[in-house]
Amino acid sequence: MFYEYIKNNPQWNLQINRQLEGIKESSKVKDDLKIIIPKLTNDASWYKTWFSFGELREKEEDHALACAYFGLAQFYLNQDDENKQTVVHRYLNNFYRAHTEIDYESYQVPYQKTFLPAIKVNINPTATKTLIIINGFDSFMEEILVAVNFFKGTDYNVILFDGPGQGRALIDNNIKFTPYFENPVSAIIDYFNLDEVDAMGVSWGGYFVIRAAAYEKRIKNVVCYDFFYDGLNTFLKDFSKDTRNHIRQLLQNNDVEKTNQLIPTLIHSDANLNFLFTKGYENTGTETPYSLLKEIERHTVKGIGHLVNQNVLLLAGKDDQYVPFNDLVLEQQELTNAKSLETKIFTKETGGEQHCQAGRYDLALVAIQKFLAAHCED
User: Which of 185, 206, 228, 377 is the 20 to 30 Å CA partner of 342?
Assistant: First the structure.
């Protein structure tokens, strides 16, 4: 279930539900949240409160809970914040201490004179297939790693990695976001010497996996968890229609000065938009609104969808707070040459209406399993 812990703050609610997935029904978490939630008033209190509770649970060796709390504590910290790396690595350390049941091997995949952190999970000893999972705009591969239990008993083992602009590839190796995600995906496939794979993209990874499938034909089946059509549409989603049109016109006219003057006035009092732009600067290495939006504009399925000739599953949350639901039909129209195209829409009535089915991940994972099983011989 998706809980509204804080009134009128969908961004904070999503992050809390996201990190506490699987443990939020425990009495300890419920007791903690009774103390934590009233303390959350701004970004500073957010960091201080989650960090202090992370330390408390870490001392008790409740590593699953410490992991979740440190994951929340680091979320809004800028990359140049002196606390960022320390908290990130406490988050990751507690993750692996909490999940000793996962049979994994860590790798460093050569990429652009450095490396991409990768994990191969050996779920099924006799598996003949590999699923590559691509994460998104603000996640670490470890966040998705807990989902591998859903693939027990299937014909799959799983490879996850932090790509450009993601997780430790960004934090530790300073590899920046790129729209051309076929390059890191091909590097992963080459490194593991795979002839064919299936691929799943999570959140912004829903764009990355379509982009990869358009140019990397060793990918056979494609899962967009959720669909993600256009980066600029996502960045501008919470502006009014008139404002969106005005910004697009400025970008089309390459009006650097007016764009850089306008955006700060629009986002200065909106914590969610401030986060989106601040994280965008961090991911891409850009420094101004104009340069960021021009970079994000390149993250689009428009114009490349016809190159995808694999089986495709699009998942969509009707109340997705990041990805405009109206973009779904645009993506469907782009995928004209897909071998097959399936769409699964989640609503409040079905559950899973939030971004990436936050609060009901199980519904999405069941749909993904069914899709992959149906196309196992393709």
Answer: 185
Element (H, E) at 283: helix 271-284
Count of structural domains within the chain? 3
Contact 224, 195 (CB under 8 A): no
CATH at residue 336 = 3.40.50.1820
Are 242 and 292 within one domain?
yes
What DSSP string runs through 175-223?
Answer: PPP-S-THHHHHHHHHHTT-S-EEEEEETTHHHHHHHHHHH-TTEEEEE
Query: What contacts 350, CB < 8 A, 6 or more positions away?
Result: 363
Domain with 240, as residue range(s), is 232-296
In a domain, 308, yes or no: yes
Q: Which residues have CB under 8 Å from 85's CB, separation 6+?
A: 171, 172
Tell me: pLDDT of 81 over 90. Answer: no
Q: What angle do CA 162, 167, 172 make, to 5 degrees?
A: 100
Per the domain annotation, does 5 fall within a domain?
no
In a domain, 353, yes or no: yes
The dihedral of CA 185, 341, 305, 201: what is its sign?
Answer: negative
Closest CA to 144 of 223, 247, 249: 223
* Residue 290's pLDDT band (cuts 50, 70, 90): very high
Pairing of strands 197-202, 129-134: parallel
Say yes or no: 361 and 310 in one domain. yes
- For the beta sheet containing 129-134, the strands, ordered from the edge strand earlier in sequence to the opposite edge, are 104-111, 114-121, 156-161, 129-134, 197-202, 219-225, 311-317, 340-346
**Interacting residues of 159 by C-beta distance below 8 A, sequence separation 6+:** 118, 119, 120, 121, 130, 131, 132, 133, 188, 192, 197
Going by C-alpha positions, the residue among 117, 144, 123 that lies closest to residue 133 is 144
